[in-house]
Fold these 2 entries.
Entry 1:
Amino acid sequence: MEVLALDEDALKGCELTDGILLDLATHRREAYPGLLAGGYGPTQEILDLAECPLGLFFFFTPPRLWRRVATAAIDTTNST
């Protein structure tokens, strides 16, 4: 750090923020890059499904889980 403090050219590309030396070439200036700046809230599809809680459950349950449930059900049926 002391060597950096002696190099004026290196310091020109840095900024001191809250006692932390940041390299402006690599440090992002945005707090949350890529964050949605537009409207937010549930989509119309979700609002339509909200009429039926079971519909919401099936919508948000991953298909991989259903495949595992089906496999377990088949295994249980075959073992009895």
Entry 2:
Amino acid sequence: MRRRPRGGWSRAAFLGLAVALAGAPWASEARTETCWQVAPDSLEITWQARWGETVITGGFRKADVTIFFDADHPETARIRARIPMAGLYASDPEAVALLQDPGWFDPARFPEAVFTARGLIPVGQDGPRRHYRAEGQLQLKGHRGPLALDIWLTPTGHNGWHAEAHAVIDRRDYQIGAGAIADATAPDVPLRIRLNAVPAACSESANSDPADQR
């Protein structure tokens, strides 16, 4: 009869421990996620505002966007976008001046907007084009509120994604607009985003969440 070494572990015990560890909750979560950032000169953030019968278009020239996304597990996606208000532009120069006022964007006091989201909800797919919904939070002019983005992702030939997103923001939720001009301006502002996302070595570690960094 073979005796087990005193104080030791049998081979069967080691195998059992290995199987148990493989089934532990953290083992299923040990997945490598890809970090994505915006390809140079591919970002477009545009909006429309209706003042009476006049439509004014504008946007933001730049944003710092970080995305963690695994196409096989969209529920683990994390998004953070920081948008400097100094990059605001509009089709009407007078509108640009107005939007700097304290009653509107007031970039002197609130220099950036921040959007964060965790998880993408699959909505549908048309060939390679995938439709998701991101239910996140927008921090704008010192106010925070929910913002849902409809996102369409199409794979590109450069190991990346082309992304288009649409949303509608009610400016009143963020105290944007004052005076007679605000009374004549539609509250709902359609927002459109286009970008190309490419794999990147992000500064955040695998355990950090860009949606927590506001």
